[in-house]
Amino acid sequence: MVASLATGRAEVPSNVVAKTAALLLFAAMHALGQAPPDLAGIWSPSRAAGPGAPPPASPLLLKPGYKDPYDARRTLERAATARGEQLAEPGSLCKPYGMPTMMQVAVYPMEVIQTPKQVTIVAEAFSEVRRIYIGKPQISLDDASPGYYGRSVGHWEGDTLVVDTIGINPSVKGYQGMPHSEQMRITERLRRPAPNTLHDQITIEDPVVLEKPVTYTLVYALVPDYEMVEFVCDNNREYVDEKGVVRMRLGGGGK
């Protein structure tokens, strides 16, 4: 400390001031470095190619008793598509897609809203909403009330938001229309590998239905100027016939 001749007060040497400022700057930078990455924004389904592309999906291996009905359904779907028809799916029945399908429906974007305690994902298709609670413990499978989106809790591992989801009702179609039990567990790893790119690596475990976990990655591109559109399913002109094919009602409401 140096006494000032003019005021008689002690002055702090300039080198101490500089060191203190440097320490404060370092502390601020450190604090910023510990802040979770920003995933907020509107993201549109994309296809990544080249060095930054995620690995291909792992095979979907169903246990005996589930594989044959699943394969038969897929065969019917392919045949219907070849005929220019569509078999019934949640969208054609005005039902939510639920998890994990809602994370990518055709070309419809989704919005990520991020706060310290919650990440909210709003899908434009059917205006589906899911909530990820940050830093909360997961409940047990027995305590989870089955629904379309389940209960999701998340925590940060560096630049990645790791999300655990349980409680998906077995009536909700799974990945690629796969069947699943109430024991299905979905683990997501969301991160931004590039400023305008978002990856969601999804791993599905189900000891009842799957021979081993299946993992795939969804890719999104940032669309900063896009405004989300209201999407409400209010269509009473379509119905599903006895073969599971979506048909259009003709005038007068009859089939």
General description of the model:
Mean pLDDT is 83; it is low at 1-10 and 14-32. The protein has a single domain (41-250), classed as Lipocalin (Beta Barrel), CATH 2.40.128.20. It contains two helices and 13 strands; from the N terminus they run E-E-H-E-H-E-E-E-E-E-E-E-E-E-E. Helices cover 15% and strands 30% of the residues. The longest helix is centred in the first third of the chain and has 21 residues, at 14-34. The strands form three sheets. A nine-stranded mixed beta barrel has the order 3-4-5-6-7-8-9-10-11. Strands 1-2 form a two-stranded antiparallel ribbon. The chain has helices at 14-34, 67-82, and strands spanning 2-3, 10-11, 41-45, 110-115, 118-123, 128-134, 151-157, 160-166, 185-194, 197-205, 214-222, 238-240, 246-248.
Q: What does this entry show, briefly?
A:
With 255 residues, this protein is of the alpha+beta class.
State the fourth-level CATH superfamily.
Answer: Calycin beta-barrel core domain
Q: Class in CATH?
A: Mainly Beta
Q: What's the pLDDT, averaged over the residues?
A: 83
CATH topology-level name: Lipocalin
Query: What is the rounded distance between the termini?
Result: 93 Å
Q: Which structural class do the helices and strands define?
A: alpha+beta
CATH architecture: Beta Barrel
Oligomer: single chain
Helix content: 10-25%
Q: What's the total number of strands?
A: 13
The largest pleated sheet is described as: 9 strands, mixed, barrel
Domain count: 1
Give the overall shape, derived from the CA principal axes.
globular
- Strand order within the widest sheet? 3-4-5-6-7-8-9-10-11
Order of helices and strands: EEHEHEEEEEEEEEE
Number of separate helices = 2
The percent range for strand residues is: 25-35%
Sequence stretches where pLDDT stays below 50 over 5 or more residues: 1-10, 14-32
